[in-house]
Amino acid sequence: MIRKLKGTTAVITGATSGIGRATALEFARAGVNVVVAGRREERLQHLVSEIGSTGGDALGVVTDVAEQAQVDHLIESAVKRFGRVDTLVNNAGVAFAGRFDQMTLEDFRQVMDVNFWGAVYASKAAVARMLEQRGGGVIINVSSIFGKRGVPFQTAYCASKFALAGFSEALRTEVMSNGIDVSAIFPGAVETEIFESASNQTGMEVPGFVPKFPAKAMAKIIVQTARFPRPEVVMALDAQAINFFNTLAPGLIDLALGWSVPFIEGMRRGAASSTTNSGNLYHPSDKK
Fold first, then answer.
1. Could you tell me where the DSSP H helices lie in 83-188?
2. Does pLDDT of 14 surpass 50?
3. What stretches of the chain adopt beta strand conformation (E)?
């Protein structure tokens, strides 16, 4: 089914940087009314102003997606301003780097609250509206290639993204006959702040992933998915390669990753300095 975008309304969480910000701008260029959500008010207002300066219509709503009341308020604000919600992009996310046996359950829950429950809260509120309105709608959940392949030191992040993938698949089959499409996006390394801002308890600097897929290019894929909904999109080459080899020989991937752990921990013990921080797990990054 091909969906019209111009004049419709899209809600995007995690819109203050990276994929979310680029997606909001891309939707605005397509003539979509945009509701952007995030924890950093100054960045939200700057984004709203940027969209407005090019003739678009946008609303910024400060939202911590880990709090259901705030997510409900986000969807209600979108309906109050624009009358409906046609597309929901659940993009907000946080990451945690550290051994499972050394992380607290509080930290694990927080990752799940943001990455998984935030999407559930938003979908719950949006589906209710989409069922009432003519034309249904589209829900796009931004998972990760780590929602198809688990990796060491990312147990909470992987669990949240696997959960989001399963939720997307189940919800899709439940609401498809009601005119609601549900898509899951599985990116690889993208130009975002997620790992740069991650809570890091490894004692080492989290290495950068290069090359990174441009956030603007990922935004185009998300907007295209809203126009031509597909069940799953795996992007880009790094994610496609991981998915292919994990499907072909998951045991070999297990061995490769498993044997990497002693090497990584040896590097940590030999590091001249210890690097630990809570990142943006509980509070927004102070990065401008």
1. 105-112, 118-132, 155-175
2. yes
3. 9-12, 33-38, 58-62, 87-90, 96-97, 137-142, 180-187, 199-203, 232-235, 275-277
> Across-strand partners of 11?
35, 88
Backbone dihedral region for residue 216 (phi beyond 0: left; psi -120 to 50: alpha; all else: beta): alpha
Q: What is residue 274's predicted lDDT score, i.e. its pLDDT?
A: 54
Q: What is the pLDDT, as a whole number, of residue 272?
A: 46
Q: Which fold has domain 9-275?
A: Rossmann fold (3.40.50)
Averaged pLDDT for residues 177-203:
84
Active-site residues, by number, are 157
Tokens 């909904």, located at residue: 229
Which tokens hold the place of 39? 């924890």
Whether pTM > 0.85 for this model: the answer is yes
Band of pLDDT at residue 262, cut at 50, 70 and 90: confident
Half-sphere exposure of 77 (CA within 13 A, CB side): 19
Q: Tell me which residue of 171, 149, 126, 114 sits closest to 35, measured CA to CA.
A: 126
> Per-domain residue ranges for the chain?
9-275
Interatomic CA distance for residues 22 and 29, integer angstroms: 11
Instruction: Please give the Cα distance from 157 to 71 (Å, whole number).
Output: 21
Residue among 238, 242, 245 at smallest CA distance from 189: 238
Q: In the prediction, which pLDDT does 83 show?
A: 98
